[in-house]
């Protein structure tokens, strides 16, 4: 059983590594960015509410985001553990998640911080923009998302550091090297994959 959160700046590779870790632990990878993009693509009410916000690189309001995550975490496949990617993203969302988990007698086991130098993440983002053409990979939206990360998301790591559950991982290397580092660090904290489910 593992309840994990992966945090890192845009272009840190947290989405890719999150999926790999979730697979290794047999838990669902829950990405708020992916959920919102799917909502936009489907043209649902939620999608319509978030389209413009996402395009500008701003954050979807906490109340809406936390409700979406609570819904998702209530699904059966998340009962034995989960990996959150992209949520919580500010201290208000940390409080929302704490309250929700506390109500179930649960808490996060580890918060992975993927550390990547600014130049490297900007390089990766530029590459992704050319390859995938994400609506929020314009120069302006990227700059806004990075600024919001520094201002609002980086501070949540202090909260988790104080709780003693933050794990810093060097995010530079090959995909496999980084996954190995992540798994080694989690196992070092007693989160073994064999007892994951
Ligand atoms: P990135 O980390 O590259 O910015 P994500 O896929 O994590 O990309 O998120 C894309 C967008 O989805 C964000 O810019 C924001 O508009 C919205 N979003 C995702 N997660 C959250 C969240 N936890 N709170 C508010 N908005 C979010």
Report on this model:
It is a single chain. The chain has 197 residues and is α/β, with parallel strands linked by helices. It has one domain (2-188): P-loop containing nucleotide triphosphate hydrolases (Rossmann fold, 3-Layer(aba) Sandwich), CATH 3.40.50. The protein has helices at residues 14-25, 32-42, 45-56, 62-73, 91-103, 118-132, 139-162, 175-188, and strands spanning 2-7, 29-31, 81-85, 110-115, 166-170. A five-stranded parallel β-sheet has the order 2-3-1-4-5, with helices on both faces. The longest helix is centred in the C-terminal third of the chain and has 24 residues, at 139-162. The structure holds adenosine-5'-diphosphate. Adenosine-5'-diphosphate binds next to helix 2 and helix 3. Residues 10, 32-33, 36, 53-54, 57-60, 65, 86-87, 89, 93, 136, 145 line the site of adenosine-5'-diphosphate.
Write the layout of secondary structure elements.
Blueprint: E1 2-7, H1 14-25, E2 29-31, H2 32-42, H3 45-56, H4 62-73, E3 81-85, H5 91-103, E4 110-115, H6 118-132, H7 139-162, E5 166-170, H8 175-188
Parallel strand pairs: 1-3, 1-4, 2-3, 4-5
The structure holds adenosine-5'-diphosphate.
């Amino acid at each position: 059983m593992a309840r994990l959160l992966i945090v890192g700046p845009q272009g840190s590779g947290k989405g890719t590594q999150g999926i790999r870790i979730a697979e290794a632990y047999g838990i669902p990878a829950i990405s708020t960015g992916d959920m919102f993009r799917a909502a936009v693509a489907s043209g649902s009410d939620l999608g319509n509410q978030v389209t413009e916000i996402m395009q500008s690189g701003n954050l979807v309001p906490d109340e809406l985001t936390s409700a979406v995550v609570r819904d998702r975490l209530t699904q059966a496949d998340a009962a034995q553990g989960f990996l959150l990617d992209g949520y919580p993203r500010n201290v208000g969302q940390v409080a929302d998640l704490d309250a929700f988990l506390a109500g179930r007698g649960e808490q996060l086991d580890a918060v992975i911080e993927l550390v990547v130098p600014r130049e490297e993440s900007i390089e990766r983002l530029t590459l992704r923009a050319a390859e995938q053409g994400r609506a929020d990979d314009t120069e302006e939206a990227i700059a806004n998302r990075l600024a919001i990360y520094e201002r609002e998301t980086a501070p949540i790591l202090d909260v988790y550091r104080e709780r003693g559950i933050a794990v810093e991982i060097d995010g530079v290397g090959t995909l496999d090297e980084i996954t190995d580092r992540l798994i080694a660090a989690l196992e070092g904290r007693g989160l073994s994959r064999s007892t994951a489910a």
